[in-house]
Amino acid sequence: MKNIILNTDSYKSSHYLQYPPKSEYISSYIEARGGVYPETLFFGLQAFIKEYLLTPFTRDDLEEAKAILEAHGVPFNYEGWEYILEEYDGYLPLEISAVEEGRLIPIRSPLLQVVNTDPKVPWLVSYIETALLRAIWYPTTVATLSYSIKAIIRTYLEETADNRDSLSFKLHDFGARGASSQESAMLGGMAHLVNFQGTDTLSAIVGARRYYGADMAGFSIPASEHSTMTSWEKEGERDAYANMIKQFGGEGKIFAVVSDSYNIYNAVNTIWGKQLKEQILQSGATLVIRPDSGDPIAVILTIVKDLYRLFGGSINSKGYKVLSDSIRVIQGDGVDAEAIADILEALKADGYSAENIAFGMGGGLLQKPNRDDMSFAMKVSAICVDGVWRDVYKNPITDSHKRSKRGRLALTQGYESVRVEELEQREDLLQPIYRDGRLLKELSFDEVRMNLRKR
After folding, report:
1. DSSP letter for each residue of 356-400
2. At 335, is the secondary structure helix, strand, or coil?
3. Backbone φ, ψ for residue 388 (5° rounding)
């Protein structure tokens, strides 16, 4: 599936016959037109460029595309692609300019602009739309969602905790198995790691390493699942839990145990709170108890109260109860932004600090986001015909929300979208990132995170 010629929509193969005669250059842009969030956290372009644009297509790719598309029933621009193969050795003659990854950009601002660098291939700009838009909307939407949840958790820590030291580990990525593909899990998982450092999506670690040079972008802990606990049978539940302490306990260590295979309340009050209490305390580790069913608010409130009674704790400077360092809770079932806010609000109302809980988020983090969440689109805004640039735009009378921008664009430091001709001495945030098979500016994962912290 690495043939870039086939990484498009079928109908785009006919578009080279549809542009005006003497067309030379086309300029298009990508933006989030609006939706759930007022701004977007831009991420994912460098991964796409490295994976798809720094490797040229080959003669075999060209012949494969010809055979498939002609049999598929659409015209194929064999001469145009052969020209790119012969003149550019199979690298795409495009220039992609974009804002820096990790920047928070208001909606309806151009995040990226692409133009062909050779006047013989103006059709190439729109041809790449399918692959390029997909490469941007998905990781950017996941990064924005993750960022918004971080803001929720930060607020509750500021209100109920002595510090925010634990913030980076308050939302753990559980989403790999719920993603539609390994690549989706990798891209979405990396996007989450721009904001947090907790993940079980190993492909995200590999992606951050491969595409952004991160030695280690995220961390995990030993944790059980139902199969490992129920394999001891119901009568052996205590032994299963005791084995977790034996295997993973130790001063300063952390491990998580799913504890509702049978009865979460018995597990908390009898097994953890009585039978194994001294083993936990003597181990020096922090046990993270994970319920995995039932009404999240009711279950969390009940077991947090029980754990405070059983293991003790303290009252912090803001007057909220904090569990003993030996015990914490993680909620990973049915988690989304609304559920997180509801659980934290319920804990706060009952006098418990947000320090006591972390969250694991699966399909809601990596699979539920879709392009319509932020109404992402890539649109042509200018075309050069016979040496003269002219505006291109849409303005449907039935939906002004879909009105597109006109002209070759720039984005100022104040996030004002202007024509390039109107930029004058102001800096353009849309800086060249790719040109004709070369990555012009490379960011490390740390730099992406730093761009977000500059906010």
Report:
1. GEEEEE-HHHHTS--GGGTTEEEEEEEEEETTEEEE-----TT-G
2. coil
3. -120, 125
4-140+376-453 topology per CATH: nicotinate phosphoribosyltransferase (3.20.140)
363 to each of 45, 116, 149, 207, 268, how far by Cα in Å? 23, 37, 15, 19, 27
Residues with Cβ within 8 Å of residue 90, at least 6 apart in sequence = 56, 57, 58, 61, 84
The helix (H) or strand (E) run that includes residue 71 is helix 59-72
Considering only CA atoms, which of 60, 115, 64, 59 is closest in space to residue 82? 59
Q: Are strands 431-435 and 94-98 parallel, antiparallel or unpaired?
A: antiparallel
Instruction: State pLDDT tens for residues 93-124.
Output: 999 999 999 999 999 999 999 999 999 999 99
- In the predicted model, what is the mean pLDDT of residues 387-391? 97
Q: What is the CATH number of domain 151-366?
A: 3.20.20.70
Where does 172-328 have alpha helices with state H?
182-193, 202-212, 226-230, 237-248, 264-266, 277-283, 296-311
Positive or negative, the Cα torsion across 245, 246, 249, 250?
Answer: positive
pLDDT at 455 > cutoff 80: no
Burial 186-197 (b: 16+ CB within 10 A, else e): bbbbbbbbbbbb
Extract the runs of DSSP E, i.e. beta strands, from 7-60. 23-32, 39-41
Task: Report the residue count for the chain.
Answer: 455
Closest CA to 380 of 19, 17, 8: 19
Contact 88, 54 (CB under 8 A): no
Contact 25, 384 (CB under 8 A): yes
Asked whether the beta carbons of 353 and 163 are under 8 A apart, the reply is no
Tell me whether strands 376-385 and 23-32 are parallel, antiparallel or unpaired. Answer: antiparallel
Task: Identify whether the C-beta of residue 47 lies closer than 8 Å to the C-beta of residue 207.
Answer: yes
Of 16, 107, 25, give the one whose Cα is nearest residue 69. Answer: 16
d(CA 308, CA 247): 25
Mean pLDDT in residue range 292-296: 93
**Domain edges within the chain:** 4-140+376-453, 151-366
Alpha carbon of 198 to those of 201, 361, 432: distances in Å? 9, 11, 32
